[in-house]
Amino acid sequence: MLSSAHLPPNALTRLPALRRRLLGQRPCGLFTDIDGTLSDIAWPPERAVVSAACRRGLERLVDRFDLVAAVSGRSAPEAREMVGLDDLTYIGLHGLEEIASGHLRVAKAAKRAATILPALVAQVVGRLGCLPGLYLERKTYGLAVHFRTAENPQAARQAVLAVLSSTVDAAVFDLVEGRKVVEVRPRARIDKGTAVRRLIRRHGLKAAIYLGDDITDVDAFRAIQQLKRRETLDGMAIVVASQETPPEVSAAADLSLDSVDQVACLLESLAQARRL
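and the corresponding structure tokens:
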């Protein structure tokens, strides 16, 4: 649990500087996570809905920024369906998928994992399916085991990790923890950070902002920070904080917001700024 004393400054108090830094350097880009950033965390995950105000802000920002991208742990097609804007670039499954200009690209590691995933899912369901409070979410190339509704989340987490660690082939899959969830993800040198780097390089961005709320966003935060240190990018990482935010997420951020509503306010403010 994170207290406000450990949060970086609120981004809404730095709006003039943010607008100057982002829109004063071209090309510039905006990257954003979806769950917990553009939409409140929902249970089950299928019920999550992107805020209408965030959607309007993103739609307007397409004309202000040279790149607007949604970066999600969901599949890229699902991310596009949630956000509902065709002009964005969508990074799915933490970088394993990308939709740009309507075309879907999938990493080879994901395709390889897909061939053995059904057998893995059957084993995991057999060992975890009877435990109360767990929710198994089948993904295109992986699996997520949620323990948000378990009576004892910490005990459930330990049980999930024990079963997955002894079941999953570590040569093919990685285990990655998030907010009350453990994901089984194709093993690859790909994450949200590598995806952000790829897009920054492809579009030649000089300035960029990344908004996220969870452990998997730390890779993207660190990518932004590393590029800043090398003086190849003027970037900012913004954590959308909640009572569930791990301290390491806040520690990797430059600025903070405290809700999806504040994300919408930031997007609207950037959309209203005069293009420099």
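(Above: one complete record from the training split.) The longest helix spans residues 153-167.
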